[in-house]
Amino acid sequence: MAGDQLESTRLALRDAVAQAERAAELARLLDAAQARIADAERASAEANALRERLEQAEKGLAAAQAAEEKLRRDLAEQRYQAEVARWKLSSVQVARWSRLGDAIKTGKSNPVRLARGLRGAAKPAKRPAAPKRQPIPVTKKTDRQVPGASFQATTSTRIIGGASVKLKPFRVPTGPNTRPHLTAAVVAEPHAEALLRYEWRQTAGFTPGDFARALSAEIPHLLLVESVTEGPWADEVREAGPALRALLAWCAERGIRTVFWHTHGEVGRFAAAASLFEHVVSALPGTVKEWGATLAAREPEPGRRPPSLGLLPFAVQPRVHNPLPLAGDRFDRVLTLAELLPAHLAYPDVLTSYRWPRAVYCPPGTEPWRMAELAACGTPITPVNPAEPVAATPPQAGPPAPPDALALSADDRRAHVALRQSYAAGTMSQKVDDLLGAVGLPSARATLNISVILIDRGDLDHALAQVAPQKGVVQLVVLSDAPDAAERARAAMPDRVDVAARRTESGLTLGGMLNRALDLCEGDLVAVMDGRDLYGEHYLTDLARPFLFTTADIVGKAAYFAHMRDVAATVLRQPSAEYSYLPEVSGATLLARRTVLRGIGFADVSEGWDEVLMRQCRADGIKVFSADRYGYVCVRDRDRWLLGAARLVDYGPPEPHALV
Questions:
Q1: Enclosing H/E stretch for 226
Q2: What is the rounded CA–CA span in Å between residue 56 and residue 496?
Q3: Whether the predicted model's global pTM rises above the 0.90 cut
């Protein structure tokens, strides 16, 4: 019994000691927390005091500036009054009566001097000009730096054949970017910087002497260094200098991924610097094998692993390589690449030149990325060198081709196809997705998935045949009276497309049906397609492209082809309405952001619902953009309204003209 009591006492003492230790630890933690709270309160008080002092200093500065401004005005007024006094004195001195008095006073004892003085005083004298108030000098306030302002085009003059041509520079956009969650520090030349600046929050312009201060303001997730040959980092990259090593060490301490991007120059010239990075990528596919051999032959420095090797080619950047036109018409000449891009042009001015001429001749050996950028800007690339003489052709009988036929030439259609192909080869956003995946960073960005609302006008098979070939469609909502509309739609559409069918209801307007269909849509974009009309297989791909380079919430077509069956005539409506912000577009070509369209809704009407929608957009300040003329044909038996602001294209089928 005594032993049990002793054991229980021992256990109780042990628990008491443990509780005392926990209590002591809690007391210590409490004291530490109270100390931190006291420090925080003290810091808060100091911050408040500093804030008050800052406010007082700002008030004092404002008062000092006001006093300085008053003193400046007073000084200017005193200077003006002194000038007025001197002018009055000079005016009195040159007055005739004053000069006569002086002559009489000085010559009263000498008749000869008196006569000479009177003759001089009788001559007219020029009076001094009255002083004018000078503007008060104003101290210039430092303007807030606008992001991207230093990257704007500056040259507005081009010299062609010895003649100077004036043009309005292309305004390089300043934002937004594709991945706002990601920050990258970039050392690059203007061309590469233009390709990357819209892909993330980009920090550039830091130097070997201030990179730690510049990058500490917003710690980047990625460091990307191009094989630069100019600028403050050129020597460091060429020689793997101490500042570059310090930058990479600074990144390593913070877990920042590092990438070296070879864009030009010999591989061996940059091998020493590239071996210090975690990843090496090349813009030149032909150099990847050489890079592999070069990196394999180099022994990595102690504590470093050999860098991985990948590919990051130049690609089209939609924000700057797009068919948005310059103000005014194109320069009506075919230029050579040397005429178009003289060596002195900075890259922002190159973006202006891309949009300027009627066509460009690119000689054999031109870089593919250069031709892709030209094509993405909507400029035709011709195989005919304008500098070479062309063999004379005998004149053709008959009248010359009308201007309309010239405007609808095959060159325009080829230029549109080339633009489409340049984007289809991959944009810079898609290339950066691959880069981020290779280095282990998230590449999430907004998508452009499309839900299509299809209005069946009585020929469901024809309507479904217009939607089935479209790319980017994730959902189809069919409005049809056909009893088996859902089954036929599922059979016609690819498996990846979700299909829903809704039958029309008596007493429900077309606008009401569209609203119900809109509630079912899940895509980022919503398209409305009319079953009566013709849509090319690239229709939605072309129509969604402006969302990559404009700030519009609704895209459609104000310039489009129309076909009247009764006279077998094909016309082109509003041909000058391509690639521009306009008050309205055709409802059968509507492609809108789903969130915006739900906020507006469709009017409860059966006729003219698109006109009401466009009026609502104008009232709410929603931007509407008109895309290209191709890929869509409005088909009617007869419609006089379609003939307004239209020009005749051909008597015959519309497909050869519209569906390219």
A1: strand 222-226
A2: 65
A3: no
| Sign of torsion over alpha carbons 366, 372, 374, 375 | positive
Alpha helices in 135-287 (DSSP H): 190-196, 211-216, 234-239, 242-253, 267-274
Residues in the chain: 660
Give φ, ψ of 610 to 5 degrees.
Answer: -70, -35
- Mapped to the 3 state alphabet, what secondary structure does 310-343 carry? EECCCCECCCCCCCCCCCCCCEEEEEEHHHHCCC
Amino acid at the residue 428: M
Q: Which of 565, 564, 559 is nearest to 586 (CA)?
A: 559
pLDDT given at position 133: 67
End-to-end, the C-alpha distance of the chain in Å comes to 103
Distance CA 598, CA 278 (A): 46
Q: What is the spatial distance between Cα 316 and Cα 199, in angstroms, rounded to a whole number?
A: 12
CA dihedral 427, 431, 432, 437 (to 10 degrees): 140
Kind plus residue range of the DSSP H or E element containing 49? helix 2-94
Among 586, 565, 567, smallest CA distance to 645 is for 586
Side chain identity at residue 340, one-letter code: L
Beta bridge partners of 501: 478
Query: CA–CA separation, 630 vs 371, rounded Å?
Result: 22
Mean pLDDT by groups of 10 residues along the chain of 660 residues:
68 73 71 69 67 73 80 77 75 69 70 71 71 63 44 83 87 87 95 94 93 93 96 93 95 95 95 95 95 90 86 96 90 91 90 93 93 95 78 48 49 92 96 95 92 93 95 95 92 94 86 94 96 95 96 96 92 93 95 96 92 94 96 90 84 92
Number of Cβ within 10 Å of residue 457's Cβ equals: 14
- In this predicted structure, what is the pLDDT of residue 466? 95
Res 404: pLDDT: 44
Contact 547, 423 (CB under 8 A): no
DSSP 572-616: EE-GGGSSEE-S---GGG-EEEHHHHHHH---S-SSSHHHHHHHH
